[in-house]
Design a protein that fits this description.
Blueprint: H1 2-30, H2 36-62, H3 65-68, H4 75-87, H5 93-111
Length: about 110
């Protein structure tokens, strides 16, 4: 259960990054930070980060930081995948090599 919540925190952080990018794009389009769509997206990102942070603190009450923190590296995998599907960003083959190394590193550290 703890690792599931920790994984949800990683997903929340990744989703928050996508929302931050969406708010940046909205700000760029509108030319002002005070545009309604920009503010809604930006404050949604803040809210998600806040909820995720509270959940992460709960996770850290239950397990060691050294056991939980390697899961955060998965955000480096999820954010670019989300950016591909939402913003149409493209990957180079080196990205997939990096993902493989990251996932391998997470698995190794979680088993340590």
């Amino acid at each position: 259960m703890i690792y599931f919540v920790a994984f949800l925190c990683v997903v929340g952080i990744a989703a928050g990054q996508i929302l931050f990018k969406m708010s940046a794009a909205s700000w760029h389009r509108s030319g002002t930070l005070f545009d309604g769509a920009t503010l809604i997206t930006l404050f949604s990102a803040f809210a998600l980060y806040g909820i995720t942070t509270i959940a992460w603190v709960w996770v850290l009450q239950k397990i060691e930081l050294g056991k939980a923190y390697p899961l955060m590296a998965l955000a480096f995998v999820l954010v670019p995948i989300g950016s591909h599907f939402i913003f149409g960003e493209r990957f180079h083959y080196q990205y997939f090599i990096g993902v493989l190394l990251l996932v391998t590193g997470v698995v190794v550290t979680m088993r340590a």
